[in-house]
Amino acid sequence: MHLIVDGKPIDIEADPEMPLLWALRDLAGKTGPKFGCGIAACGACTVHMDGTPVRSCILPLREVQGEITTIEGISTDGKLHPVQQAWLEEQVAQCGYCQAGQIMSAVALLDEIDNPSDEDIDNAMGGNLCRCGTYPRIRAAIKKAAALKTAGI
């Protein structure tokens, strides 16, 4: 199977029913996406497929179409993505386990809406769970990332 992951073509020999998450982690060496629940309920496994956030824990390889971007691939210039920068500045992470999925959902949101409202953030981030409860910091980081992105940082 031929995939494009983080801008690079890779060939994977795997059962077409294998979830994308396991192909990414075990075969492609991308450890950013995490296994959280296995039923697409928590968002820890979120990656982008052609810019759209998808839950890689339930997406079989046979259904993968387009380019896959993991958290390892959201910055192409060697600098932090504005969302990653905002996450650090707002000290979002506590345990950090859910953060790759949270960041991937936030990146997709800001790619769609430059200055999201609280309702936009709630709608986009509602499927990403944080057991540590850092939701207020996540919201603040998304708003800061929107400002950083607008400023060209």
From TrEMBL:
<protein>
    <submittedName>
        <fullName>(2Fe-2S)-binding protein</fullName>
    </submittedName>
</protein>
<dbReference type="GO" id="GO:0016491">
    <property type="term" value="F:oxidoreductase activity"/>
</dbReference>
<dbReference type="InterPro" id="IPR012675">
    <property type="entry name" value="Beta-grasp_dom_sf"/>
</dbReference>
<dbReference type="InterPro" id="IPR036884">
    <property type="entry name" value="2Fe-2S-bd_dom_sf"/>
</dbReference>
<dbReference type="Pfam" id="PF00111">
    <property type="entry name" value="Fer2"/>
</dbReference>
<dbReference type="InterPro" id="IPR051452">
    <property type="entry name" value="Diverse_Oxidoreductases"/>
</dbReference>
<dbReference type="GO" id="GO:0046872">
    <property type="term" value="F:metal ion binding"/>
</dbReference>
<keyword id="KW-0411">Iron-sulfur</keyword>
<dbReference type="InterPro" id="IPR001041">
    <property type="entry name" value="2Fe-2S_ferredoxin-type"/>
</dbReference>
<dbReference type="GO" id="GO:0051537">
    <property type="term" value="F:2 iron, 2 sulfur cluster binding"/>
</dbReference>
<keyword id="KW-0001">2Fe-2S</keyword>
<keyword id="KW-0479">Metal-binding</keyword>
<dbReference type="InterPro" id="IPR006058">
    <property type="entry name" value="2Fe2S_fd_BS"/>
</dbReference>
<dbReference type="InterPro" id="IPR002888">
    <property type="entry name" value="2Fe-2S-bd"/>
</dbReference>
<keyword id="KW-0560">Oxidoreductase</keyword>
<dbReference type="Pfam" id="PF01799">
    <property type="entry name" value="Fer2_2"/>
</dbReference>
<dbReference type="InterPro" id="IPR036010">
    <property type="entry name" value="2Fe-2S_ferredoxin-like_sf"/>
</dbReference>
<keyword id="KW-0408">Iron</keyword>
<feature type="domain" description="2Fe-2S ferredoxin-type">
    <location>
        <begin position="1"/>
        <end position="74"/>
    </location>
</feature>
